[in-house]
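Example protein
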Amino acid sequence: MNRRPIFTDEEILDRARSVFLERGYAARTKQIASAVGLTWGAIALRFGNKQSLFQRAMVGPDRGTGEPGCRQARGGTDLESLLARVRTLLWERWPLRLQYRLGTMTAGPDDELEGFVHGLAAELRPHARDGTLRSDLGIEMLARLAVALLTGDVAQRFITRERTLAADPALIDGVVRLLSPNEGLVPGHP
């Protein structure tokens, strides 16, 4: 008798993630089941419904709430590199988050985006301690400002249907200047 292979939750999530990345939230459960190698019933038994599977799959490894994917940056990484990594992570995740939100018509707080803000704030603390961040705004507000600007850039590129995320040193430099001491939010004003 042939037994079906036993998959770990992470193996199932990895395979489902690849389908969601390729097809978006509109992927059919039959397509997901085929890629995973199990019936949809077996997948649903473990993860509930498509919405739950999508949420778990798109969080991905080491990307829970409060984890913007920047923690490897701790220990003296420059601000430019940190912000460029956050921008890249937003680029990878934003289109799927938008599809999910539109597909399920959910409203309310966005836990994942809040996770990016809190995670970035944790990464900014060492920069605040060494005086490379402005002190007139709190760290959470600076993180929220940076995430909003980077998300706006990603959203604009998504809307214009760019396929890849080109490096944008001017954008990163602008965000760094906004976060830096002695730089006003309005040109010419301290």
The helical segments are 9-23, 29-36, 40-47, 50-59, 79-104, 111-129, 139-159, 169-179.
